[in-house]
Amino acid sequence: MTTRTIETVDTSSRTSIQLQVQGQDGNGDAHLGLPGPTTAVTSLQTWNNPRINIWRILATFVGFIIMGANDAAYGALIPYLETYYDLTYTVVSLVFLSPLVGYTTSALLNNLIHMKLGQRGVAIIGPGAHLLAYIAIAVHPPYPVLVVVFIIAGFGNGLEDAAWNAWIGNMASANEVLGFLHGFYGLGATLSPLIATTMITKGHMQWYSFYYIMIGGAAIELAVSVAAFWPETGAKFRDANPRTTGKKGGRTREALSNRVTWICSLFLLV
Questions:
Q1: What is the pTM for the complete model shown?
Q2: Nearest 5 degrees, angle CA 180-CA 125-CA 237?
């Protein structure tokens, strides 16, 4: 007589199904006296399973629209920043370095935020950094402050970029969903320069007026992201992503010691 015991474990990122088959003696194979085999089957999440993923995917789409609009606006606003602050093009171009600093900082803190706060933390901190930065930009502070504020916006971009790409990349049919995700980034990147320059040239508004729109967009981003990812705490993330190696130290340090990490980084740089 063969018995089958089925145990299901549902986590936030995958479902594990474990089957154990025992022989007639209850201890293993009836003929060979071997322990019964154990088979683990991993079922990946999809964009619509569990159902809450539909709203989470839509929240990431909103976030990537804001990210694209943020990144593409710099180039369009450079000439107007140069005139407004009465600076040379070289000095004004320092704003292009701000996203680099923000992204680098987010890379160093990304794992810590996930482990302590989970995806809930990303959903709060990323859009919150956008909202804070856009409010500060809208009051057109002195130029050195503006450069720092752009770093905060870059931090929000880097945090969400890594988190949502990694989350969706672990789904079934990830390539298709990631294609849509980055398509929405492109949508934001296409619209923001058009809107910004139209407001300045046709509407005769100041360059910072564009960030009134960005404030509204970031507020929506924050609201939908927090609502969608609120249940995803740090504890749930740690349970769903246990450490699979015996190495000590932080996971960021472990990733940096991996040759594949640097190969991919150089590829993206080029």
A1: 0.80
A2: 75
